[in-house]
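Margin note from the TA: students keep mixing up input and output lines. Inputs are the sequences; the output is the structure of the whole complex. Example:
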Amino acid sequence: MDLFLQALVSGLLRGGLYALVGIGMTLIMGVMKIINLAHGQLMMVSMYITFVCFTSLGIDPYVSLLICMPVLFLIGVIIQKYLLNPLIRVETILPENQVLMTVGIGMVLTETMRFIFTSDYKSVKTSYSNATFFLGNISFSVPLVIDLGFVTLLTWVLFWFLNKTDTGKSIRATAQDKDAAILMGVNSEKITYITFGIGSALVAAAGALLIPIYYLFPDIGGEFTRRAFVICILGGLGSTVGAIFGGITLGLAEAFGATYVAMEFEDVIGLVIFILVLLFLPGGFRRLIKI
Amino acid sequence: MVKKAVPFIALAALLVFPLVVKSDYYQHLMILVLMWVVIGSAWNLIAGYTGQVSFGDAAFFGTGAYTAGLLVTKLGWSAWWGLFFGGITAVLIAMPFGWICFRLRGAYFALATLALNEIMRHIATIWEKLTYGMLGILIVQTFASKLPYYYISLALAVISLITVRLVMRSKYGYYFLSIREDQDAAESMGINTHHYKMISLVIAAALTGVAGALYMNYMGFIDPHVVFSLHDISIMAILVGIVGGVGTQYGPAVGAFIMVAVQELFRTGGYGLISKLAKASGSETIISLSEFITKAHVMGFGILVVVAILFLPNGVVGDWNKITRLVLQKKIKGG
Amino acid sequence: MSLLKLDRAVKNFGGLAAVNNVSFEVHKGEIVGLIGPNGAGKTTLFNVINGFYSPSKGDVFFDGKKISGMKPHILCRMGMARTFQIVKPLKRLSALHNVIASAFVRANTRARAEEIAVEALKFTNLYDDRDVLSKALPIGKRKRLEIARALATQPALLLLDESFAGLNPSELNESIEIIRKIKEKGITILIIEHHMKVIMSISDRIVVLNYGEKIAEGTPHEIGSNPLVVEAYLGEAQDA
């Protein structure tokens, strides 16, 4: 029973962070209708920024949120404005060229980091990295609990932004019906790069929050892109609330998988889940509830 | 008239090439080019003509290569049987995959191929009893000379180009293009879109599997990370397709030539020029630059993907008019 | 003899009935008009008939056979062709190649397919535009290309979804003439149309949908004087 509860708790805590990863991706998917296959790579870049802030400047990872979020926002804006938006105007036979573009971007980001930091594993060991407290026999990781607080805060801010501000409303309008939004006077080009910026900033936050309890090397980006995608599909493409459910589900699935199933096949299981979800839950949980 | 003659002139040149150029190195590169013509044509058929983009060609390539290798190590047959059976096993992977995953459209199908690529690599790594895992498979090559490999590769390249040409001029070609342009319209025109997507995938997988078997025969060594590589096989295949020209008959041939040259440029650090320059000048920045370039071929591929999609979305063949116009304009300005 | 028969067909989308309990028949050689205000479920009904959707309840019969749930490509082989309200040309193929691709359903060789295609293009007055890429055709010709492509499958039943929308008066007359010629060939037509004058003049019978339900059926004359129909249309006018 304790084993089960322990898996449940770690799954939920980790799921909160995954939700943040997924929300960023799903926002981009909802507005631009593209799958951002560089999403995990953006997170990886943010983790390296946090790593440098910590090791060279002694800045605490939580404080460095203030650095990596704006930086990644900017990177996101640049990617959307100069690399993705021009593709809409390009006349080409090649299908899915935007998705392919994000693959290329992901490769460049990964290799740039490998060039600077090599492929070695890095980690950020803060004083609280291994801190835990117990409720009964169940251990709670202190950084993960703090992270959950940050995730809740950021999600709340995002929802406030999307529901109350003009820019936020424009983003939601564009996601629902782009043509109608343009007719209503929404500057859709601006909305696209703001959205990509916000998505990148959110995943940047997830990266900075994760690094005290995780390890870091350039190829970690691909892993998180895959996770982000599974989260989005589970939650229903483009649904921000769904992404929270998707994130928690994935967190739980991984925690229980690690507890009860062999580790050796973890990657393969992840990929098989990926394909199964792709095939059978293209509308995500939303679809299950509706029908 | 001139345009029609180009393929034949190119073929004639390729036939005499190894008789004129005796260097093992250049013959080796040309063998790679010809192998990539096969893979690129296959990718072009399913992605360029049928519109179902594959991000995971390595799944079929690696399957073909492993088939050839395992025929030797497990059954004691000649690896050349792999040219036949490699194609068949690749099809055996492609059929259930396509059957299940062709209900997905567009980018989602592409993602499924990506996952297939990764799954196949993990299987090849984990299933040590069959595949020898990370140790890979080493076989003794049949020929010491490069010539036989060259002509076999040339034959395969020509066969795959002809196959694609014949397919595209038949009913199948019309159906593939219809599916690419509009699946709903195709369906209502009496085209069983699922069935014809399968046919396109099966042909592509077979050709790619054969190329994999050729690779095993020629290189004599494979391991999961070489033949199921996402970057060096799957992304390379896409680049061959894009750089040459998506949905054009000879695009993949041109693309293969360019991409092997680019790959070699990175592998050798600018064909050794930069390292020579580094030695001559003794400058530290140039030395580190030369080291960087030899390590950075994946980054180079990434940059190439970005640049190609932005500026040459239809490839050298597809955007030929645009390229010539640019060059001519510069000449006019210069003059 | 009925060629197409709907028996209490229903199509639900998440609890919402887009088509509700619709029954009617189309007889061989007829032109039947399908009208109704926007959102009445006309195009959804077409999608149910030609197999893009399978009916949630009820059945569809074609030529005496039950076809509910059959795929569009099979129905096309059986002799049912359709056009789309939002035209779906094969954009980067020429007009001729568009129609050849379609003609292969009835042809074993390329030459035969081309023969059928050329005939269909001449029939729809598009032969002079045969080498133009279909994305470069003006909307009126694209609408006719849809018809040509449908005809090339040599159908017994032709479903036309707003083939007259957006046409100028001379194109309109040309298209009406083509529809008449299609009828002379013995092809049965079910047509969705907003253009009242056109539908009243060419239809043998008319079926009226509103909110997914059939509210009236009859000759153009009967429909024109049916109070329910008038209300449905006036109601819409008042809302707008």
